[in-house]
Amino acid sequence: MKKLTKALLATGLLSATFAVQAQESPISANVTLATDYIYRGVSQTSSAAAIQGGFDYASESGFYVGTWASNLSYDDYIEIDYYGGYSGSLTDEIGYDVGFIYYDYPGMSTDDFLEFYGVLSYGGLSASINYSNDFYASVGKALYYTLDYGFDLGNDFALGLHYGLQTYDLDYWGTEDAYSEYNVSLSKSYAGLDFSLMYTDTDLSDANCGSPTACDSTVVFAMGKSF
Description:
Elements: H1 5-11, E1 27-34, E2 38-39, E3 42-43, E4 50-58, E5 63-71, E6 78-89, E7 94-104, E8 113-122, E9 125-132, E10 142-154, E11 157-168, E12 178-190, E13 193-202, H2 206-209, E14 218-226
Antiparallel strand pairs: 1-4, 1-14, 2-3, 4-5, 5-6, 6-7, 7-8, 8-9, 9-10, 10-11, 11-12, 12-13, 13-14
């Protein structure tokens, strides 16, 4: 697995759908076409298609930096993320990853925010925690906890299980200051491309979500390529 995989799972940039392939070069790029952009269980494109991509640099020492972007549904804006961190091993079986991510929304500077994350992994199991002192739209402090498990099914198939809990100091979602989200994904590498199918849902009601479909269960198909 690529060094950045668990870090991106922790931030929410990677939705547990792709078995990211190892890169021989320290510099890599990726592009994805998806039927929806799901961030922590919530659609960012009003259930419409998304085109996404990014660039990464990962050194042998464990340090890495990267950027990633996606279209959004509201007002034709985009999201551009910048991140960096360090990954390593505590033992032969336990790995760790710590870093930061800055979410940039050009034209909506009041929504920009900075988040820090830490990940521990053991085999196919990983757990993470993210912290922001001033989350999206000046919500204030927020924490995001995740638990992920990946299964290698053979023949370049992989199954991913994901659970996340997002909490806030304020009642961000209507009357709710926290919500749970989860997904189950199946991915396959074929002919140099990565394909994935993901079922995702949250425990947010339509009333608290503020949208009739953004927080509902949905199936997302994606096709990506790493360079």
